[in-house]
Amino acid sequence: MIRLNQDINDILESIQDNFYVINRDWDYVYVGKKAASALGMDPKDFIGKNLWKMFPKYEGTVDGENFRNSMEKREISRFETYSKYDNIWHEVNVYPSTEGITILGTDITERKGIESEKQELLENEQQLTEELQTSNEELQCTTEELRTSNEELQIQRNTLLELNSTLNESKEKFYKTFHANPGAMTISDKDEFVDVNESYTKLTGYSKNELIGHSSTQLNIISSEQRKQFLTESLEKGSLRSIEFEVTTKFSEKRIVVSDVESIMLDGKKRIIAFNYDITDIKRNEKKLKKTLKEYDQLNRTLVALRHSSYAMIHATDEESYMEDICRIIVDDCGRSMVWIGFTEEKTKKVLPVAYSGFEEDYLRTLNITWDETEHGQGPTGTVIRTGKPSICKNMQIDPKFKPWREEAIKRGYASSIVLPI
Hints:
Elements: H1 2-14, E1 18-23, E2 28-31, H2 33-38, H3 51-54, H4 62-73, E3 77-82, E4 89-97, E5 100-107, H5 109-140, H6 144-164, H7 171-180, E6 184-188, E7 193-196, H8 198-204, H9 208-211, H10 224-237, E8 239-248, E9 254-266, E10 269-278, H11 280-315, H12 319-334, E11 338-345, E12 350-358, H13 380-387, E13 391-393, H14 403-411, E14 417-419
Antiparallel strand pairs: 1-2, 1-5, 3-4, 4-5, 6-7, 6-10, 8-9, 9-10, 11-12, 13-14
Helix pairs in contact: 11-12
């Protein structure tokens, strides 16, 4: 019997969760070491003592209600709760018996933290989705210019796919179409090119003799990873559509290609035919269009800011409120993190902030900007005062003239700045 009791005690002590046994008078009968140590106590400090007297804060809480429910109705209770005593989230299971209740608490603080982070990520994702939807609505107006080119590309692709469906009917017709096609086409097995058309030689810069019998990876046209992916997916699925990737020509020029791939039977052998379209120029035009759109957006923001600034000037009652309105307008309309206005003090050659808006976090109190010949006078602000010309700090982390303010700026997430004379 002694041995059995010892074995039971060893099993209970091996439980890694918080473990309590309470009798029907609400006195502790057993407390695990982990549960006691979590509260900075010893198990013997609990034995024989009343739960409600030791921990009165449980009264009226989720914990207390579930404890009483299990004790009185003899029903198993399961719930999650945040403990006011050890500042830990617990998943609690309460098991009733004729003698009282057994409480098993598992630390789920880490899981709760992860759930909270997930919720935050979901909220951020929702916000980004809404912002992207707004941006997409604006971009829809600009995509019309690319639609004509894309439609022509789609027509060519559809024509080639239609021709491919008739390959088995006429081998001669197929090869004529293959070699005369303006699209860059290749036929290959698992390892090397079997045939290529003239358009593909023009695309890559390699002659037909240089290509036949070699693989695209041997000639460094595409990476081995890309080729492996194309072969695997085309053989498994039978076809691939609109795969966009980069090719390297014989002369080391990078071109962007979109490719349709089909697995076919040719001369009784399984081959892979690829229809490649050079979209490098289209991509460049897209990039230029996006740049123009970005510049247009910035110009539009500036015009809105000017309109609001004019309104603020007309309705200003004093200089201080007008300057604060200007700072706020630039932050809101131009998307800046923080904007401030400073006046020079001739006697001390210091620059005193007089108005600001945005994410500041007491940054201005740390500046100590001057326009003298000291280190604090050589930054963008001091330079503007001395020269009367705008000054830009493109990267606060590496600009040597911004060193005196770098640490505080980085703390607040600032990356660059522009200073304008007024």
